[in-house]
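Is it possible to get an amino acid sequence alongside its tokenized fold?
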Amino acid sequence: MPALAVRLPSPSAESWDWQLSAACRDADPAVFFHPDNERGEPRASRVRAAKRICLRCPVRARCLNYALEAYERHGIWGGYIEEERRTLQRMRDVESQPTAAIRPGNADHGRRLPSSAVRAPTTIH
């Protein structure tokens, strides 16, 4: 499987100004990034605390969008933990793939599917 290229937003100040309005700006960063081997209720409690902060954040959508664009692998961004963002990223990646026409002869001729859904014919022996 090829490695994903990391796409970071441009370095201009305007690209990062949204962070000045973030609800987490004055919060302890440890709330948003789990320590090694954190499990169970301590982790769940920390995640709930971080998500409460995110819920009242005026730039939550921009934060999440940044994390998805940058393939941010760690921490809570925009109110989503790592696993939740991976799910969103997969959905976003599938939606952004170019489409390919269904092969002629099918009853659905003319309908379009993502190119990832079109596979080479399988031969059955």
Notes: Strands lie at 99-101, 112-114. The first strand starts at residue 99 and ends at 101.
